[in-house]
Amino acid sequence: MLIEPLLKCSNVRKTFGGLQALKEVHFEIGKGQVHGLVGENGAGKSTLLRILAGVHQPDGGTGIVYNGTSYAPHNANDALRSGIVTIHQDINLIGTMTVAENILLNNEPTGAWGLLRASKMNKLAANLLKQYHLDIDPSTPVNELPNDIKKMLQIVKAMTWNPKVLLMDEPTSSLTNVEVEVVLDLVRDLAKRGVSIVFVSHYLSEVFAVCDDITIMRDGRTVGTLRTSDTTISQVVRHMLGRELVEEQSRSARGTQHNEVLLSVRNLTVPGVLNDISFDLHRGEILGFTGLTGSGLSELARAIYGVSGMRREKGTFELEGKATGLANPAQSLKQGLALLTNDRLREGILPDFSITDNVCLPIIDRYRKPTGLLNLGELNAAGREAITKLRVKASGPDAPIKSLSGGNQQKVLIAKWLTTNPKVFLLDDPTVGIDVGSKDEIRKLIEQIAAEGVGVIIFTTEIPDIEKLCDRAFVMFRGTVVGEFQGEKLEKNRILETSVSGRMAA
Amino acid sequence: MTMPITENAGANWKGTLRRSYGLIQSVAVLLVLVIIMSLISPRFMSVINIQNLMAQMSPALIVAAGMTIVMINGEFDISVGAVLALTAAVSASLMPQLGFVPAIFVSLFIGPLFGLIAGLIVTYGGIPSFITTLGTMMIARSLAFVVTGGQVISDLPPAFRVIGLARPLGIPLPFIIAMATIVFGWILLTQTAFGKKVYAIGANRLVAALSGISVKRTKIICLMLCGLAASFAGNILLARIGAIQADTARGLEFEVIAAVVIGGVSLGGGQGNIMRVIIGVVVIALIRNFMNLARIDIFWQDFATGSIIIAAVLLDALQKRIGSQT
Amino acid sequence: MTMPITENAGANWKGTLRRSYGLIQSVAVLLVLVIIMSLISPRFMSVINIQNLMAQMSPALIVAAGMTIVMINGEFDISVGAVLALTAAVSASLMPQLGFVPAIFVSLFIGPLFGLIAGLIVTYGGIPSFITTLGTMMIARSLAFVVTGGQVISDLPPAFRVIGLARPLGIPLPFIIAMATIVFGWILLTQTAFGKKVYAIGANRLVAALSGISVKRTKIICLMLCGLAASFAGNILLARIGAIQADTARGLEFEVIAAVVIGGVSLGGGQGNIMRVIIGVVVIALIRNFMNLARIDIFWQDFATGSIIIAAVLLDALQKRIGSQT
Amino acid sequence: ADPVRAQEKSFRLGYSQFWGTNTFLRTQIAGAQKAMKEWETKGVKVDLIVTNGGDTDTTKQVADVEDLYTQGIDGLLIFPGDSVVLADPIKNIYNANNIPVVVTDIGLGSGDWVSYVVTANEQGGRMAADYMAKNVKPGAKVIVFDHGPAVQCIIDRNRGFEERAKELGLEVLPRKVMKLSLEDGRRTMEDTLTEIPDIAGVFFQNHAPTIGAEATLEAANRLDVKLVNFDTDPTAYRLVKEGKILGTIVQNPFEMGYVGMNSMLTKLTGGTPEKLVQLEPRLMTKDNVAEFADEPQVLDAKAK
Ligand SMILES: Nc1ncnc2c1ncn2[C@@H]1O[C@H](COP(=O)(O)OP(=O)(O)OP(=O)(O)O)[C@@H](O)[C@H]1O
Ligand SMILES: Nc1ncnc2c1ncn2[C@@H]1O[C@H](COP(=O)(O)OP(=O)(O)OP(=O)(O)O)[C@@H](O)[C@H]1O
Ligand SMILES: O[C@@H]1[C@H](O)[C@H](O)CO[C@H]1O
Ligand SMILES: [Mg+2]
Ligand SMILES: [Mg+2]
Questions:
Q1: ipTM, 2 decimals?
Q2: Of C252, C260, C254, which is closest to residue C236 (Cα–Cα)?
Q3: D115, CA 20 to 30 Å: which among B178, B218, C291, D187?
Q4: CATH assignment of B2-325, given 3.30.1490, 1.10.10, 1.10.3470, 2.60.40?
Q5: Structural domain span for residue A429
Q6: B133 close to B70: Cβ distance less than 8 angstroms
Q7: What is the whole-number distance in angstroms between the Cα of residue C108 and the centre of ligand 3?
Q8: 3-state secondary structure of C7
Q9: Contact at 8 Å (CB) between A426 and A301?
Q10: Ligand 1 contact via A350 beta carbon (within 6 Å)
Q11: Tens of pLDDT, residues B146-191
Q12: pLDDT (tens digit, 9 = 90+) per residue, C133-152?
């Protein structure tokens, strides 16, 4: 390289307890460059970013040089003040605070006496939102927003720090196509303006779309850096996984027929959220619900499962031909439903609990011995099985789930619901944060349980998932089902058009 | 769907209304309480009783302002009652030599000092504030006994007593000071960057830290402010009563925490409105006052108090549930 | 790169060690305290002193078992002291007519009943348990005054007193009962499905609810169990002291909450080890004993108590920090 | 009963206090210590352990009494927080092991003691009512502010006051409960003035709330309301002197401790102390206040 890199890591290491998360990391980025960072779940990407963000301190001396001087931030504030700004992998906003408060947190405009300048704050927030095409009221509490908007807000928040180096950890997971484009445009634009960007993502097409260089991590090591222009996706995948990925034919094209109705939903209505939704799910079928964000996908999943807060005004359910109430999660679970929610942090994991305890929570009563005591041996076996089945990278079933990488946590949660042996499996954004290899495995797993007679419903804005995995798909628009696709009609462009227009595409 | 940016004025107004909703409803519950009490005891609404109530609740209001900040920040301060007593004891015992202004001034350092010590232990030692301030409470109470020698200290300068006894425009000065403290707390919590940090840390300290907020420093400052409030209240109480003993304000911490929780501040932190805390303090003061006016049998007074507290909070919650359904 | 399953046995063993680490270290802190006390007073380690200590701390241990369950579940029970007093009062006043076994039996319904009422208000009314049980505490205390008429009730059947005074193998029976209660709590919390639910709800009630756990029912049961513990402790205390007055065990709630927190249970719920709570109770009991042995001036006793509590918890935290670095 | 001069002797004694931060109880200790000094000149040394029962917690006082036994004391002086609750360990431990017990104030309902020194509490209450009646109009309204509805000596004082006040034709209103503190005295007095503007007199069982109530009366210009109380301290003494507290029933805690310690050492050196020593309560008013100027309760602790 001609110019001295702006940020350079040499031989960075990090251990957690006994586990060496980073063994030998070499990495550098020049001014105005976009550098992709890819690797399997648990490879160490987030750990590296957290070190740069001042959250973790690396082992041993400082292997990091920034702007020509040694860089060793003690905390997030040090990093932020030196222009290194991070968008962390998991949603990092304060739910009880408003949009404006969140994006300007610790960066508020103040006037005389240190008083906030409320009008300036609102104007600033409104302008930022407009700039990123976000049509939301700055005074909305963040809790009330869907996940993708929250993700976008994190990006907006990062921009208020005027980054010199922007570290983006899976910035596009749970975003819709349109939003992904907004983010990618932003990345390109920032690079043009001289900001250096580290772009961590499991969406390799996005990585290839914006990055100048790609560094591949495996098992805590950087195994190499490639020029994007000199490589291909499959080459990168091979480096990541050490094996090839075979593109499979999409399921709908195989045209499997399913006739036995398993669950039928009629006239499901949640005022202001869901509008008169009726459909049948067949045994062995994988059904997809997609649409733009805000079209009510998560709400539908939750309304079926009977989550409190989803006040059903109307709606009847028939499971295996028998009417059922599905009044609350406990009842739904008993009837054979399972729901994987899309908010891993708030509604998914119990961070301090072991993998086993997370996995076995819904079925804990099954491990009761006649004495009333738990069969701890079997419980542990179940945890161990989950780790093996989903190839979770963990030190063992006793490890607290918070010590896992994001993608591995997601796998544990999928395992959790699988252990309930559901008849109907509702999956809301199941592949968030999952690496390409595992995504493939999870797809296979879902197909396998479908083949065993389970009815699966996937709720996702990820049209590729729908295309690959579903027998049939419904498109939602503002809480209403506006289209149904099957067979060869189940195809990306038709779905997208319907999602946007709210009208069935030809 | 989502609201266009141009409608922001309207949305903001609605937002404000929505945020004030809890406050308005709590006021409604308070009104119900007041009406019932006035019906039972006609003297309840007399000017003099209201003046008394105002003066009586002033120290608790001031302490509640500090406690609200600490609790929104996600911590507790169990030491407030003891720090109040120690401050008043020091202030009273310094007055003869120093004069009352310097004595007050010196004594106002006690609370922040205790807050600083507790804050350092909580943040650097990683000890829960509940335990830490339980410890500092005992230390402060002990020192109060040492300072007073177990005696009542009295005979304070009349000029000082004025602070506790004056009633400009008929409103007791302690109450005016207390309200000013609450307003100060409100400004600090809602109109300053510091306030945003306090809420953010209480809601999610990890996110706050990742946003570059110095969690330790903020927590320490919150505890120091709460200590300052306790010291301030100590001087106000001293001026009102004109005497102090080491035992003063025992149990005040729980009365105030109860008031703060009744006022809607969550025990976990991150949420709450200091203005509603006033209502919490008023409810507790009203109940005590009411017990005295309504001539309820001694043995049954706690029963009535407990029931009224539960009923008032239930009523509040019930109303909110009905409100949120429309 | 998952770890080969064959290594799991080792991992498990390490896991167990890691989980017990906190316990082992707290025991170490306790030992330091004990050694210091023995140096100050040679009689500290005498059989009789240890017997006394065991008997003295028994009611607090039993209540702490209940409080631990409630606090791991993410709630508080402020009413334990009052429920204890009410139970003992009822039990003592029924004994002459009913005989002591039926009297105990009847009185043991009081705590669960209070727990049920509080539980219903907390879960269906959505009122924080802190406030709810503050209310029920006042109600229970009031009823204790009504039942005793403000008098001390004494003169209990000698057969009943045996429960409080017997020392099989030299160990006070109340202590044996208390340890049995703790072990029961430990089994409940760690070896049963119910226990897993209690922890899960305390950690994140939303996740628990989505996993099909009945949050309301579990919370109510926890409060009822805590009530039962308080009632149980009431009878033990009664048997030990042989008399009861309505004022008994005022403030016990905070002593026990402090012990539970010293024992490492987080105030927010979801975490904690009931075995370590024993240490919290012992620390607090030792301190009182220590004050008497070390002849600390009464004015300075609170100072010493506060400092020891902070120092013990700090030492514990410090040790853990050093431990986790290796 | 003067003891025979003993040869060099030393005793370890315990003094179990119930509320050791209170002036009254500290004064008892001071009295006991004076006696100890006198005995030392006679060659009797005392090693005194004072315990505090967690300040007003009877259950803790039971634990203290047990701890003191563990310490191997030769004799126990006790200010029992409760006559019934504390009787039990006295019987089961001290009487059973023949360790002498001296009770100062309050009294024990059962068990045995070598000496009991006490003020006639109910009589004190009656004296207070007598003096109150002399200073208010016939049939005037009087009230008791009660800080200890379950504490025996307080119950006795209140009963004495109320019964005597009724006998004397005063109108006795239902008691108000409050905490024992300055600010509760102040607040309760404020509330009472509102509710019962024609209240003529209030009786208290302790000086602290009396001082608080006086602050109310002064602020409200209602010094016509008469206050009578038990116990005193420098502030309460001054208020009597200034005529702002009508009268105080003064006990003699110093004497309680002094006599108690003398009784104990008499017993331990082979003598026979008096089983019951009744100390007369004395009425302190503006007119005789000078007689009380040297009371240990009145002398400021720090001035000493
Ligand atoms: N706080 C922690 N304590 C213990 N282990 C941790 C901790 N944080 C990360 N690890 C471990 O470090 C390794 C790397 O994790 P990291 O989160 O960096 O992976 P990642 O590459 O970001 O994966 P993903 O794609 O799933 O987000 C994992 O094995 C993880 O379990
Ligand atoms: N109870 C409710 N009342 C009114 N609006 C609601 C309610 N719950 C959610 N919403 C709103 O409905 C919209 C739909 O959110 P939802 O979570 O279903 O989006 P989604 O289509 O699943 O997208 P994603 O999964 O990407 O978040 C959001 O704008 C959300 O704020
Ligand atoms: O009654 C006792 C004493 O006699 C004294 O009045 C001090 O307070 C009470 O505890
Ligand atoms: Mg990651
Ligand atoms: Mg969704």
A1: 0.87
A2: C252
A3: C291
A4: 1.10.3470
A5: 252-336+422-501
A6: no
A7: 35
A8: helix
A9: yes
A10: no
A11: 999 888 998 899 999 999 999 999 999 999 999 999 999 999 999 9
A12: 999 999 999 999 999 988 88
